[in-house]
Design brief:
The complex is a heterodimer of chains A (about 750) and B (about 160).
Chain A (H helix, E strand, L loop, with lengths): L1 H10 L7 H11 L1 H5 L8 E3 L5 E3 L3 E3 L5 E4 L9 H13 L8 E4 L11 H5 L9 H12 L10 H28 L7 E3 L2 E3 L6 E3 H9 L27 H5 L15 E7 L6 E6 L9 E6 L3 E6 L2 H10 L1 E5 L7 H13 L5 E5 L2 H7 L2 E9 L11 E6 L4 E6 L4 H10 L4 E7 L13 H12 L5 E4 L2 H6 L7 E9 L5 E10 L2 H10 L24 E7 L15 H19 L3 H8 L5 H13 L9 E10 L2 E11 L4 E12 L6 H21 L4 E2 L2 E2 L17 E6 L17 H13 L14 E2 L3
Parallel strand pairs in A: 4-5, 9-19, 17-18, 21-22, 25-28, 25-29
Antiparallel strand pairs in A: 1-2, 2-3, 3-4, 6-7, 7-8, 9-12, 10-13, 11-12, 14-22, 15-20, 16-17, 16-19, 20-21, 23-24, 24-25, 26-27
Helix pairs in contact in A: 1-2, 2-6, 4-7, 7-8, 13-14, 17-18, 17-21, 20-21
Chain B lengths: L1 E5 L2 E5 L7 H8 L18 E4 L2 E4 L12 E3 L12 H8 L9 H14 L5 H7 L9 H16 L5
Parallel strand pairs in B: 1-5
Antiparallel strand pairs in B: 1-2, 3-4, 3-5
Helix pairs in contact in B: 2-5
Classes of the chains: A alpha+beta (about 750), B alpha+beta (about 160).
The complex binds FE2/S2 (inorganic) cluster (2 copies).
One FE2/S2 (inorganic) cluster sits at the interface of chains B and A.
């Protein structure tokens, strides 16, 4: 097994451009072995607690309790409820009933592997041998992970299939037990009854017998018209415990004899700890140990505060890196590379210079966005219990369950590592990283026998994030006499996320060519006319970058949707009309825009210091549009008055939950556009806490009205797509109100501030 | 040594007087419903009530609250029945990740105890907590609903 894993780990790559690479890994593992991998997880098995797993997704206990396994981190997006609804729909149970609950499984099964995320392909898409090998290679490694808004997308068919299979297995068991043909039985929640109602048997009494039934083939899943759970605003299952303060996040894990550790990481990217002068630190009250982690120091104590006081008292000397990163220098580098056309990749159609020559009007603009921190509300933390016999248990609010296990395995000679995934206080991509788990595993290894919780302070969290990379875009367009875009050129400079993430977290090489994250949202934009060029430039720096809610879309929607607004101004047209004219009439974007104009009552300029901004952007298989109304006073104080959003995410699983994700996604994007900026000077991040990296608050938040496009298409993602329209809607609204075009984020750089109500 | 009254119960604690209340609650008493967000009084995740006043426990030393009544989210529900504020939070499906919500709920409880029918401005002034998930729209609606529930004689 371990040999197989190291083989696959070496060749494994992520990103849609790399499917062939994963497929080659699959061929390397061998067709026979891969064919035996249980990717569907439709079987039943008894587990050691006496309960029965009827498929990989459903557990039934003798006391008739049904537990739905959801192997995706619940970090606020509502995946436990949404995924639970898919199961409940076909299993035929009432998801709100007392005896039903959802939990994140500690076991990593092949059926849980998130190949949809890694391959950027959904199961319903056409599958050839390449996909077969890729999917199974990832399943063989049991790559359990949460991200890319893929839980529902990747499991829409498979999990309903599992629910239906479980129902049929249980029904067959009931038929056997009651001596009545299965098709004569009726089901009420978790029991079956005979036609006369005289005999009733519960799931709990059937589960063992279900093990012996043959899983049916060719089950027909319910159609949209028959849905009773899908499409319903089921209350979130996690809310009751969350309002009681009883929900356990990573930071709330408590174990017997547990201790706490505070961390101080070398303040400069690439620096190491050279020497720790402990002084009197070990003599302080409650201090248990001081652990050198090479790039950080941990102080272990019986209380988090004592640990933190002590770590701050240490006198540490560092080994500095050869070069110190600097965010303003990175910007200058990217700019000059764009000027020099020093592209790492470029795609184009038709003769670009010729089309610019022929254009009636040309428009050009350069946009800039900053580095951003995730700033999840719950700072990074992980608890690890490295036992004397080298078995290891990890409790972590992680989006990367499997990579976290690997991280713990690598921290010492661990055998049998189990990762328990807790609730997370926000994730937004930050918890796809393994750094917080690695530190915790190392401290626990040094402390063998005693569980330890390693907690980052807010400042550590802010200064040692894996940031959303800043970007620069030079946008050029030619318009014809009628005001249609005839040629479009986008040159985007940004650090590559995958090149940073893969070596850091999965021990894999950086992709050979610049990843598509830099260009997503531009490359396949419906605005692209027949003549277009989309190019990227990269920069090499020690600043770690990662996945930040909506990833490259967070930059590129700003560039595209602001530039389209500028083109509209250039053409002397209303932005909504201009966009509508330039989008293919049958595109999802055009449909969303039309509904948005109707719902927002788009009638043109508002006047009187008021402005409305519009943006529509597709990401993660969903299209979201927003109209934002602002008013701006003479002091450049912006009041965020009201937003109207339209979301087309295909089939809606839970409308109220989608509404929440749209609202939250927009606030996330507005917060960044209003205040967000991480600067790096001399290799150090300047910002440390929420006074320097501000957040939008209640008093400043606009009201947000959300409309969902009705539809029965395959479901798209909802966790991320609400964010991309925020920044361009804000910049466009400020332009409409003031005539000043903001091309550099955050808007505070142009002297704008946000009003508190 | 410090003596604190938390959720109506007295505790003798072997802690430094300058230790923030937050860490006594979380690490000494395992009352983990009160959250750590910033440690600097900036986010409100650690909000408890001290003699009925919403208080950020991460910047409140133990010695400054001896002899007061401290209340945390854990006992807001009375014998299992949710308080009016908690009920309103469920009705309006406020929490996303939920991590900031105990702080918001405690701050709202204190607000409504003092100002049963708060104006929008009063709500804005009292709830300066941060919700990174952006649940503000529903928070505002839930505060209004909680005020209503309290008036109509629900639990405090
Ligand atoms: S943790 Fe106390 S205000 Fe943020
Ligand atoms: S619900 Fe996540 S921070 Fe408020």
């Amino acid at each position: 097994m371990s040999k197989k894993r190291s083989l696959t780990r070496r060749i494994f790559m992520i990103g849609s451009a790399s499917i062939a690479g994963v497929a080659i890994a699959g061929v390397g593992i061998g067709t026979g072995y891969l064919a035996s991998v249980d990717v569907d997880g439709l079987g039943a098995s008894k587990n050691d607690t006496g309960s029965v797993d009827v498929t990989a997704w459903i557990n039934i206990a003798p006391d008739n309790k049904v537990t739905i396994y959801v192997p995706f981190l619940e970090m606020g997006q509502g995946t436990h409820t949404g995924m639970g609804q898919l199961v409940a729909e076909e299993l035929g149970i009432d998801i709100e009933a007392e005896n039903v609950s959802v939990t994140h499984p500690s076991r990593e099964l092949s059926a849980y592997a998130n190949w949809t995320m890694f391959l950027n392909r959904r199961p319903e898409e056409e599958a050839g041998p390449v996909t077969w090998f890729s999917q199974r290679a990832i399943a063989a490694m049991r790559m359990v992970a949460t991200g890319g808004s893929t839980a529902i997308v990747g499991n829409w068919s498979g999990v309903r299939q599992a629910g239906a299979t479980a129902r049929e297995l249980l029904k067959a068991a009931a038929a056997q037990k009651l001596g009545v043909p299965a098709d004569k039985l009726s089901q009420h929640h978790t029991e079956f009854s005979t036609p006369d109602g005289a005999q009733i048997v519960k799931f709990g009494d059937l589960a063992e017998l279900a093990l012996q039934q043959t899983p049916p083939t060719n089950i027909k899943l319910r159609g949209h018209e028959d849905f009773t759970v899908i499409g319903k605003s089921v209350p979130r299952l996690d809310i009751p415990e969350k309002v009681r303060g009883a929900a356990r996040y990573g930071i709330d894990v408590r174990l017997p004899d547990m201790v706490f550790a505070a961390l101080h990481q070398a303040p400069v990217f690439g620096a190491k700890i050279k020497k720790i002068d402990e002084g009197q630190a070990r003599k302080r009250h409650g201090i248990i140990d001081i652990v050198n982690l090479e790039t950080a120091v941990a102080v272990v104590a019986d209380n988090t505060w004592r640990a933190k006081q002590a770590v701050e008292a240490l006198d540490i000397t560092y080994e500095w890196p050869a070069e110190f990163a600097d965010s303003s220098k990175i910007k200058a580098d990217l700019k000059s590379r764009i000027e020099a056309e020093d592209y790492t990749r470029t795609d184009s159609r038709r003769d670009i210079p010729l089309h610019f020559e022929q254009a009636a009007k040309t428009i050009e603009a350069v946009y800039e966005t900053p580095y951003l921190a995730h700033a999840t509300m719950e700072p990074m933390n992980t608890t690890v219990w490295w036992k004397e016999d080298d078995t290891v248990e990890v409790w972590s609010p992680t989006q990367s369950q499997t990579a976290t296990r690997w991280a713990a395995e690598a921290a010492g000679s661990a055998k049998d590592v189990t990762v328990h995934v807790t609730y997370a206080g926000g994730g937004f991509g930050r918890r796809a990283e393994t750094d917080f788990a690695i530190y915790a595993a190392k401290v626990a290894h040094a402390l063998k026998g005693r569980p330890v919780q390693v907690i980052w302070s807010r400042e550590e969290d802010m200064r040692h994030d894996d940031y959303r990379p800043g970007a620069i875009a030079k946008m050029s367009a030619g318009l014809d006499a009628a005001g249609k875009i005839s040629v479009l050129k986008a040159e985007v400079g940004s650090q590559s996320v995958f090149a940073s993430y893969l070596p850091r977290n999965l021990g894999m090489p950086a992709p050979a060519s610049q990843d598509e994250a830099t260009l997503e949202g531009i490359l396949k934009s419906p605005y692209l006319p027949p003549a277009w060029q989309v190019s990227a430039v990269d920069v090499d720096t020690s600043i770690p970058v990662g996945f930040w809610r909506s990833v490259g879309h967070s930059n590129n929607s700003f560039f595209m949707e602001c530039f389209a607004d500028e083109c509209a101004t250039g053409a002397g047209l209303d932005p909504a009309q201009f966009k509508l004219a330039n989008l293919p009439a049958n595109s999802r974007e055009a449909r969303v825009l039309k509904l948005l104009m109707e719902k927002a009552g788009w009638t043109g300029p508002l006047g009187n210091g008021k402005g409305r901004g519009l943006a529509v952007h597709k990401s993660f298989r969903s299209v979201v549009g927003a109209v934002l109304d602002v008013s701006v006073d003479d002091e450049k104080t912006v009041t965020l008055e009201k937003a109207v959003m339209v979301c087309d995410c295909g089939t809606v699983i839970n409308p109220r939950l989608v509404e929440a994700q749209m609202q939250g996604g927009l606030i996330f994007g507005l917060t960044a556009a209003a205040f967000g900026e991480i600067t790096v000077e001399q290799g150090k991040v300047t910002q440390g806490n929420f006074d320097e990296y501000e957040m939008l608050k209640l008093a400043s938040a606009p009201s947000i009205e959300v409309h969902l496009m009705p539809g029965t298409d395959l479901p798209g993602g909802v966790g991320e797509p609400g964010t991309p329209p925020a920044a361009p809607a804000l910049a466009n609204a400020i332009f409409a109100a003031t005539g000043e075009r903001i091309r550099t984020l955050p808007i505070s750089k142009a002297g704008y501030s946000i009003a508190e109500a | 040594m410090a003596r604190l009254t938390i959720n109506g119960k007295g505790h003798d604690l072997d802690v430094e007087g300058e230790m923030p209340l937050l860490w006594v609650l979380r690490d000494e008493l395992n009352l983990t419903g009160t959250k750590f967000g910033c440690g600097a009084g900036l986010c409100g995740a650690c909000t408890v009530t001290v003699d009925g006043e919403a208080t950020r426990s991460c910047i409140t030393t133990v010695e400054s609250v001896e002899g007061t009544n401290i209340r945390t989210i854990e006992t807001l529900a009375d014998a299992g029945t949710l308080s009016a504020v908690q009920q309103a939070w469920v009705e309006h499906q406020v929490p996303q990740c939920g991590y900031c919500q105990p702080g918001f709920i405690m701050a709202t409880s204190a607000l409504l105890d003092q100002t049963p029918d708060p104006s929008d401005d009063e709500i804005d002034e009292a709830l300066t907590n941060i919700c990174r998930c952006g649940t503000y729209e529903r928070i505002r609606a839930a505060v209004r609903r909680a005020a209503q529930l309290k008036k109509s004689g629900g639990q405090s």
